[in-house]
Amino acid sequence: RMLRSWIEQPLISSALINHRLNAVESLVKQTMARGDLTEELGYIADMERLMTKIVFGNCTPRDVRTFGAAIAALPALRSCLEGTKSRFLREIYQEMDELTDIADRIGRAIVDDPPITLKDGFVIRDGYSADLDEVRSLVTGSREYLAGIESRERERTGIKNLRIGYNKVFGYYIEVTKSNLELVPADYIRKQTLSTGERYITEELKDLEGRILTASEKMLTMESELFRELREFISGHLF
């Protein structure tokens, strides 16, 4: 985009033209400096495009993480310009903002490999928000809790292949095969009949399901709000 802009709107001042050409000449002569700059520029993503998406609010978690990685590389890029002999490049060195405050905030807020959308959850890093961590602990800890219920129910009923499952239509359930139906306790509530057995629910499992679903919805809402605050923080520091 910059090259196209330079071609479409070329410089008309000979002083500015020579200023730019002197910088090019300097890098042609400084082979090692040019190599270092080339390497560091390889870590810089399309920052203009990413900034535009962030400012206009249509960025994804991965866009923000990519932007954070790009600005985290700015200090090393800037250091490559420190010893240059070109006045033009020295001016860039002096004027370049390393944006360390933004890089730090993104690094603390967004996980290393975020999902594509906020709807998938688990975008915000653990430790960034104590309130979010508390809600998330119920969501993530539910697996261990369900495993505990499953183990306890196997022991209580004597049904060794009893299992707890979940689907979006029926929610959580206890599945029992046909060969073990005579062992089903009286407090099990039939939920679905299968060709291979039956699915049941208990009051304990029903209560846990409600708490997990509520926590999941709350977690997504909190992550969305924290992401919005981060996006506004970045936008406010860029312009």
Describe the structure.
With 239 residues, the protein is of the alpha+beta class. Helices cover 61% and strands 9% of the residues. It has ten helices and four strands; from the N terminus they run αααααααααββββα. The protein has a four-stranded antiparallel beta sheet. The protein is rod-shaped, with a radius of gyration of 29 Å. The two termini are 20 Å apart. The mean pLDDT is 93.
Tag the structure with descriptive keywords.
single chain, 10 helices, rod-shaped, 239 residues, alpha+beta, 9% strand
Question: Brief description of this entry?
Answer:
The protein has 239 residues and is an alpha+beta fold.
Low-confidence stretches: none
Note the beta-strand portion.
Answer: 5-15%
Distance between the termini: 20 Å
Rounded mean pLDDT is: 93
Q: Rg, please? A: 29 Å
Specify the structural class: alpha+beta
Helix content: 55-70%
Helix and strand sequence: HHHHHHHHHEEEEH
* Number of continuous helical runs: 10
Please describe the biggest sheet, giving its number of strands, its sense, and whether it closes into a barrel.
4 strands, antiparallel
Number of strands: 4
**Biggest sheet, spatial arrangement of strands:** 1-2-4-3
Shape estimate: rod-shaped
Give the arrangement of secondary structure elements.
Elements (H helix, E strand, L loop, with lengths): L1 H7 L5 H16 L1 H11 L5 H9 L5 H12 L1 H7 L6 H9 L4 H10 L20 H28 L5 E5 L3 E7 L11 E5 L3 E5 L1 H36 L1
Antiparallel strand pairs: 1-2, 2-4, 3-4
